TrEMBL record:
Protein species of origin: Desulfonispora thiosulfatigenes DSM 11270
Pfam families according to UniProt: UPF0122
Protein name: UPF0122 protein SAMN00017405_0092
Protein task: Might take part in the signal recognition particle (SRP) pathway. This is inferred from the conservation of its genetic proximity to ftsY/ffh. May be a regulatory protein.
Transmembrane segments: none
Amino acid sequence: MTQIIEKRAFLCLLFDFYGALLTEKQKFVFDLYYHNDLSLVEIAQEENISRQAVYDILKRSENILYDYEDRLHLASKFIKTNDKLVNALNIINNIEQENNSDKLGKLKQIIHSVLKDG
């Protein structure tokens, strides 16, 4: 189950980075399936197409998103940067508990803003 959730979350992240490069139909179907949690049958009924057509659009879209990531690595770099910032923030929190320094507080605010905006 966790792998399914992780795959779904990663595909949504890829969509955030590369979704604009999909066709309007691909974006729409992807959004209905991954963001609105509609089933293939529900999308097929709404779009007046077959369930197989919905499946094909989704698989094609997923492959395109994975292909862009394989070439550009933007999502992977984002994840690594985010992980490093979270780790740095944890270290700062540990130091701050031992020594309440104004400089650490300012640095912590900066990292929080990067995590929030990033």
